[in-house]
Design goal:
One of its GO terms (biological process) is DNA-templated transcription. Strand 1 and strand 2 form a beta hairpin. With about 300 residues, this protein is of the alpha/beta class. Helix 2 crosses helix 3. It has two domains: about 80 residues, Arc Repressor Mutant, subunit A, CATH 1.10.10.10; about 210 residues, D-Maltodextrin-Binding Protein, domain 2. The strands form two sheets. Strands 3, 4, 5, 6, 7, 8, 9, 10, 11 and 12 form a ten-stranded mixed sheet that branches. Helix content is about 40%, strand content about 20%. About 35% of the residues are buried. The chain contains ten helices and twelve strands. The radius of gyration is 30 Å and the shape is rod-shaped.
């Protein structure tokens, strides 16, 4: 069954007159003459077959029906105005993404030119785990570490990855690193966030050495950067360093990989889940990760 919608011009004229309580003010708002507004209101009353105003000379008073109808129309037109402005502004406003420095530098920035509004993305990087408090983090969307649900936030698992050791080409030439056992005497880069060298050694069938065997950094990105500069060997996330390895700045060591788990997720305020820029960015980044073959199983998480 099709919609039964009244003439839109008549609806606008009636709603403006009812809101202002004055025909001339409504006419000024709509850039019409008062007589044109009056004509449109008459047309709407004919369409509805009911009176919306009581007329006493130049004085207009809403009928009970008119008062109820105008209140509903004002809410509907305000919603239409808000939705329209959101779409129009999406073509001009910047889009703020908060993420870790490593994700920004090694994964996101090299791909931004493939996003339709990539030139309007404003990157914000966090020193620790990115905050998902959208009331204070000055972000539209966050690339969150792991996929823990947060109250009032939609969390979409994005990327899963295993870990393996990486070394700079120069250090590999200088050091004799030909078996996992050789790492037990090497300088290893450690990270506070989730150091897993013990797990990797056990997976490789080697007794873990006494840890740490090198400097400890606040996160895996700094540990990997140190390895890239030839300062030691880092346990890196495959999904993040693939591009760096392809460019020849790092070399993977051995086939042993720690079992993959979700390392990043997309997070945004539940109240903005239909924002067109959030939807486009989320769709784009999911498709990019899927092309890499590192996409996490999809399940949107919303904590009550």
């Amino acid at each position: 069954m099709g919609r039964r919608l009244p003439p839109f011009a008549a609806v606008k004229a009636f709603e403006a007159a009812a809101r202002h309580g004055n025909m001339k003010t409504a006419a000024d708002e709509l850039c019409l003459s008062p007589s044109a507004v009056s004509h449109q209101i008459r047309a709407l009353e004919d369409y509805l077959d009911t009176a919306l105003f009581e007329r006493h000379g130049n004085l207009l008073t809403l009928t009970l029906t008119g008062r109820g109808y105008s209140g509903k129309l004002t809410g509907l037109l305000d919603g239409l105005d808000e939705a329209t402005r959101a779409i129009q502004q999406a073509g001009h406003r910047s889009f703020r993404v908060l993420c870790t420095p490593g994700f920004a530098a090694r994964w996101l920035v090299p791909r931004l030119d493939r996003l339709s509004f990539g030139n309007r993305v404003q990157l914000r990087v966090s020193e620790g785990a990115p905050s998902t408090d959208f009331a204070s983090n000055d972000a539209d969307l966050v690339i969150q570490w792991t996929d823990a649900p947060v109250t009032g936030v939609v969390t979409e698992p994005l990327m899963e990855s295993g870990r393996y050791p990486v070394i700079s080409p120069e250090l590999k030439q200088r050091e004799d690193v030909s078996s996992p056992e050789d790492l037990a005497r090497a300088t290893l880069m450690h990270d506070v966030t989730m150091d897993a060298w013990g797990e990797w050694f056990r997976a490789a069938g080697v007794a873990p050495p006494v840890m740490p065997r090198g400097p400890t950094f606040p996160n895996c990105e700094l540990a990997t950067t140190a390895a890239e500069r030839g300062q030691g060997i880092s346990l890196a996330y495959d999904a993040v360093v693939r591009g760096t390895i392809e460019e020849g700045r790092l070399v993977r060591l051995f086939d042993t990989v720690i079992m993959p788990f979700v390392i990043y997720s997309v997070a945004y305020a539940e109240a903005r889940s239909e924002d067109p820029m959030i939807r486009e960015f989320a769709g784009w980044i999911h498709s990019e990760v899927a092309m890499d073959g590192t996409h996490a199983a999809q399940r949107a998480l919303v904590s009550p």
